[in-house]
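Sequence, please.
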């Protein structure tokens, strides 16, 4: 069972993965290279190429929980099962699926990676707790984090590589360093380390990624501790997230996909298309309308 989590992608599968995320030139380059030398990957594991992979993945592979919410099917984290779902069948998934699959792609391309458990942290960073407020215990970690390690010739630096946050996620790699700041397609993101916030499960050894909202407010996105996780360590939180009746992934339909001119969002029976700053809403409570919308705008066929 757990051995299936450790299967590595072949370079032939990598070529198909690159086609799936519409990096057609890179896919053809890899195919041509394999014809001459089947054991050598022609790409250098650089930050620039990592940025390209992240952005392409976000544009083509939707964040979606239809398997869990609509179909009530188990989520299998086997490398091959995920490849079949995401690449062969052109579906998406949520973080335990997408970031796991993306991590497999990165490793096959020669990147050094590690995997971590994180907590979604949607709150105002500068908020002041009101006197007498009750502390709320944080829920269990429900997000998978990928870190990528790249040498600049002198030192090895680590980067967050997330293709499965949905919504306000960076469109490329973010340097994991105290005080790190990146402007990603107009979105501003910051990293902090060691700022304790116990009610939210943020300990002194935690990283916190934040973003600046359109109103100028700094908001939390995700926190994680720098403990490297084995692939088997994601099985239990994945099971909890996809089966617990109180999990929002079980109860609330969510689909999110970045577009070059905006994004698409499905929340339960409401579809929103944001294009060049203009948002259009469509009621998709009718199953046929919903199926047509998912196919047209997200490439999803159930």
């Amino acid at each position: 069972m757990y051995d299936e989590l450790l299967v590595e992608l072949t370079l032939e599968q990598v070529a198909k993965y690159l086609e799936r995320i519409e990096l057609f030139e890179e896919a053809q380059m890899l195919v041509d290279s394999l014809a001459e030398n089947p054991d050598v990957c022609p790409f250098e594991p650089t930050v620039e190429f990592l940025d390209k992979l992240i952005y392409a993945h976000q544009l083509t592979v939707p964040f979606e929980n239809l398997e869990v919410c609509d179909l009530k099917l188990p989520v299998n984290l086997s490398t091959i099962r995920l490849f079949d779902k995401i690449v062969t069948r052109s579906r998406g998934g949520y973080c335990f699926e997408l970031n796991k699959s993306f991590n497999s792609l990165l490793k096959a391309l020669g990147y050094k990676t590690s995997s971590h458990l994180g907590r979604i942290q949607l709150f105002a960073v500068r908020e002041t707790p009101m006197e007498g407020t009750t502390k709320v215990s944080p829920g269990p970690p429900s997000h998978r984090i990928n870190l990528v390690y790249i040498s600049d010739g002198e030192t090895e630096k680590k980067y967050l590589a997330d293709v499965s946050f949905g919504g306000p996620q960076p469109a490329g790699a973010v340097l994991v360093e105290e005080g790190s700041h990146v402007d990603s397609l107009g979105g501003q993101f910051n990293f902090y380390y060691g700022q304790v916030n116990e009610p939210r499960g943020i300990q002194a050894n935690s990283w916190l990624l934040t973003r600046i909202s359109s109103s100028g407010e700094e908001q939390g996105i995700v926190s994680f501790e720098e403990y490297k996780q084995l692939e088997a360590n994601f099985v239990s939180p994945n099971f909890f997230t996809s089966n617990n009746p109180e999990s929002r992934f079980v109860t609330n339909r969510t689909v999110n996909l970045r577009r070059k001119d905006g994004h698409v969002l499905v929340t339960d029976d409401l579809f929103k298309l944001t294009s060049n700053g203009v948002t259009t809403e469509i009621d998709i409570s009718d199953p046929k309308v919903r199926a047509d919308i998912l196919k047209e705008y997200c490439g999803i066929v159930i």
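The domain at 2-125+139-260 is CATH 3.30.2140.20 (Arylamine N-acetyltransferase fold).
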